[in-house]
Amino acid sequence: MINILGLKNSILDQFISEVRDAQIQKDSMRFRKNFERIGEIFAYEISKRLEYESVEVVTQLGVAQSPVLKSYPVIASILRAGLPLHTGLLNFFDKSENAFISASRMHHKDGSFDVKVEYVSSPDITDRVVILCDPMIATGFSVHFAYKALLEKGIPSHIHIVAPIASAEGIDYLKKKITSKKVSFWVGVIDDELTAQSYIVPGLGDAGDLAFGSKI
């Protein structure tokens, strides 16, 4: 299942336009905050698909029956670019456990690259709902490798994969590689072009560098 939130106009479009804007990107704090707010919007939408149970809440005047989450999802992100988005999801799912995956591109002289997962920190996700987030899906390689790495920590009841910006090629790749009906994709917008260097066009650039500074 692919859920494209940008198909219906909402405040999400405002935040995505700002993270794309080369002038606004110069303010790294606003860039991070916008991704945090985007994460909150995705958290709200995903919350509609989770399971709830009714509990009694004692007020000052009586007792109210209120639906509450049966359990909180595990939130997983790909370091380091996924951290602001992760924070937004965690703002809403504030009782969630967390997982972190360190994945990097290993570039070759011919312009190709491999993705290497170097580190995974995760609780047992057996029979849990997991939200795996990354700010962008370009080729889809990083998300695919992160997905496989998480499955080594247990078999979840469902995985929601969140990426505010994705390429059509990356989505097609993941649809072929991840065929489980227990996986849902959540994206904001899908861009058509992916360059030979695997950059999304128009995309937004390097989300990690824009959020946290350049790296060597």
Q: Can you put this structure into words, describing what you see?
A:
The chain has 216 residues and is α/β, with parallel strands linked by helices. The chain has a single domain, classed as Rossmann fold (3-Layer(aba) Sandwich). The chain is 31% helix and 33% strand. It has 6 helices and 12 strands. Strands 1, 4, 5, 6, 7, 8, 9 and 10 form an 8-stranded mixed sheet that branches. The protein has a two-stranded antiparallel sheet with strand order 2-3. It has a two-stranded antiparallel sheet with strand order 11-12. Helix 3 links the parallel strand 4 and strand 5. Helix 1 (11-20) packs antiparallel against helix 2 (28-47) and helix 2 packs across helix 3. The longest helix is centred in the first third of the chain and has 20 residues, at 28-47. The termini are far apart. The mean pLDDT is 93.
